[in-house]
């Protein structure tokens, strides 16, 4: 008797297309090659024997999907040693790009791991590929920890909607909802005067013939871009007003225009292009966050925004000011345990990233406001419900719903907090860790920012026709972290000089001489 496949997993299991496979890729790098027999033994003992779903395949019986044991399971099919032509980044990049288009054999478990070696026996890499139907990114990070040797302090920081406390009972949850609903309604009412005053002002100003063209242009802009109207109507409420934010974010989810730009228009093909950036100092990112009153995530998203602004400008695209992404939000926090079924416990929400803002303070503040409103809204739970509906719908309906939502975004953007201490794999130190997110529908781009052992890496994957030069994006993120750091240090220095100028000088002795 097989194990029923949860609807939250089935959503991703059935979302594969030849041009966009729902695979999560990870890459560990080493300065020397681990022993092959030890690698095989570690993978089997630490994960395969522990998580039963890794030895099961998806099976459909009528309309019911279950995980069934693979009676022909063979470790050699899933854990392989691959010899590359040389140890260059270019060769590794080309091989990894090809792997993005290789589907799993659905008669067997949907994962594999590859030890990528080269003739000089140095700078080895370990590639992991998991189908998204097996689990979400957070659980696959935990799986990564399980593969590696035990290390004190390696557990990632808590993430997820419930990270700050335990599970609430039904009564606590109901009281919490009532309390915040009342508070948010009062907040909304408190700002109705501001809305009415501004609407009155606009209506009165239209009586001025000279102002009429401007307001007609604004009205037309609202009709063409209804998301702007939704933002304007909800901008008066507090940033943590769940009622207002829920209307705002759900409106964005339903009304956002198609994600398109001349630089990447069209439909993706099977071939992919990947690139990565490593060695970004996490301490520098924290310095930037403190200087501009933001968070680490705000700074990382600002760096991505600046890199994509540059990328579009390089291609002559100047009129894109917002770029919508699908961004995963974990519904359960990381903890010390991991269910043997792994599973998906997250929702994908729409994050509208501002582009074209070059002032660091203004950009980070805009991102902070947008992410705050998104977190204090009902969109994550609504998105999780939509994912369940997609999983339980007939294939034609499911495909239509997937296309509807994925067409509003350019791809998936994820910020994953990884291990905080250095890991070892069969005794060999892990130098760096990269992650690459899947894309769905016609999305051409995926970006994953991953923190590990005091540094940050950026993994970029794109359609090889629409975005062939993914390295321009990955390198751009690293370059803009440096530019933001320079701006943060200049801001700090300027603030120090102002404080010194405001401090009264020490009075001299009565005789005007030093003692």
Average pLDDT metric = 79
Please give the number of β-strands: 16
Helical content class: 40-55%
Radius of gyration: 26 Å
Describe the biggest sheet? 5 strands, mixed
Account of the protein in words:
By secondary structure, the protein is α+β, with helices and mostly antiparallel strands. The protein is built from 16 helices and 16 strands. It has a 5-stranded mixed sheet with strand order 5-6-7-2-14. The longest helix is centred in the last third of the chain and has 33 residues, at 470-502. Residues 164-192, 214-227, 241-249 and 507-515 have low confidence and may be disordered.
Please name the defining characteristics of this protein.
515 residues; alpha+beta; single chain; disordered C terminus
Topology:
Blueprint: E1 3-4, H1 7-13, E2 23-29, H2 36-48, E3 56-61, E4 64-69, H3 75-78, E5 79-83, H4 89-99, E6 111-117, E7 125-131, H5 137-147, H6 170-190, H7 192-205, H8 212-224, H9 226-234, H10 242-255, E8 272-281, H11 282-291, H12 296-314, E9 322-330, E10 346-354, H13 360-375, H14 379-392, H15 395-406, E11 411-417, E12 424-425, E13 428-429, E14 432-436, E15 445-452, E16 455-463, H16 470-502
Parallel strand pairs: 5-6, 11-15
Antiparallel strand pairs: 1-4, 2-7, 2-14, 3-4, 6-7, 8-16, 9-10, 12-13, 15-16
Give a concise summary.
The protein has 515 residues and is α+β, with helices and mostly antiparallel strands. The chain contains 16 helices and 16 strands.
